[in-house]
Amino acid sequence: TTVTSEQIEHLHRRFKQLSRDELTIRKENFDSIPDLEFNPIRGKIIHAFFDKRNLRQESDGLADEINFEDFLTIMSYFRPIEMNMDEEQLDRFRKEKLKFLFHMYDSDHDGKITLQEYRNVVEELLSGNPHLEKESARSIADGAMMEAASICVGQMGPDQVYEGITFEDFLKMWQGIDIETKMHVRFLNMEPIAPCY
């Protein structure tokens, strides 16, 4: 998928703004993003920007800092659908986005999402709702965890041991959900971070 020169210029301005005109961005640079401040999974989003798996590197773990090329790589997961995409391109596009999400859930980087990891993310997402008590959020998270288990365990043989949600399971769990248009980054707005003099 191509990125226009105008989009690259916009992202480069945003990168320079975040990095304070340095050549790289570090995690603390994300502290100046107002839209992220109250996001319940703020830590996971920032973590995802430095996850070497999302940077399409072979190695595992986290980068200490990212350059503009890395930033473009991460932002490519959030690009919109193009009207001229064929079925194969749409499928690849969807899988890339879901792989990014999968890495956010897989906090121990072992290639599987344990039910506890899944439950933690759902609980964190719900924690941002001021109208939902902590116990209710925990109940909903438990229900989501059980639903995930039923989807995954339903495909297992009687002699198999459940070790966690694989990426293939994750794809099945998200089947029918319009991730292509819903997964976006609002904090790319240039306006909220005006330099203070």
TrEMBL record:
<keyword id="KW-0479">Metal-binding</keyword>
<dbReference type="GO" id="GO:0030027">
    <property type="term" value="C:lamellipodium"/>
</dbReference>
<keyword id="KW-0472">Membrane</keyword>
<keyword id="KW-0106">Calcium</keyword>
<dbReference type="InterPro" id="IPR018247">
    <property type="entry name" value="EF_Hand_1_Ca_BS"/>
</dbReference>
<dbReference type="Pfam" id="PF00036">
    <property type="entry name" value="EF-hand_1"/>
</dbReference>
<dbReference type="GO" id="GO:0005737">
    <property type="term" value="C:cytoplasm"/>
</dbReference>
<dbReference type="InterPro" id="IPR011992">
    <property type="entry name" value="EF-hand-dom_pair"/>
</dbReference>
<dbReference type="GO" id="GO:0032587">
    <property type="term" value="C:ruffle membrane"/>
</dbReference>
<keyword id="KW-0449">Lipoprotein</keyword>
<comment type="similarity">
    <text>Belongs to the calcineurin regulatory subunit family. CHP subfamily.</text>
</comment>
<keyword id="KW-0649">Protein kinase inhibitor</keyword>
<keyword id="KW-0539">Nucleus</keyword>
<keyword id="KW-0519">Myristate</keyword>
<dbReference type="GO" id="GO:0030154">
    <property type="term" value="P:cell differentiation"/>
</dbReference>
<keyword id="KW-0221">Differentiation</keyword>
<dbReference type="InterPro" id="IPR052490">
    <property type="entry name" value="CHP3"/>
</dbReference>
<keyword id="KW-0963">Cytoplasm</keyword>
<protein>
    <recommendedName>
        <fullName>Calcineurin B homologous protein 3</fullName>
    </recommendedName>
</protein>
<keyword id="KW-1003">Cell membrane</keyword>
<dbReference type="GO" id="GO:0004860">
    <property type="term" value="F:protein kinase inhibitor activity"/>
</dbReference>
<keyword id="KW-0966">Cell projection</keyword>
<feature type="domain" description="EF-hand">
    <location>
        <begin position="93"/>
        <end position="128"/>
    </location>
</feature>
<dbReference type="GO" id="GO:0005634">
    <property type="term" value="C:nucleus"/>
</dbReference>
<dbReference type="InterPro" id="IPR002048">
    <property type="entry name" value="EF_hand_dom"/>
</dbReference>
<dbReference type="GO" id="GO:0005509">
    <property type="term" value="F:calcium ion binding"/>
</dbReference>
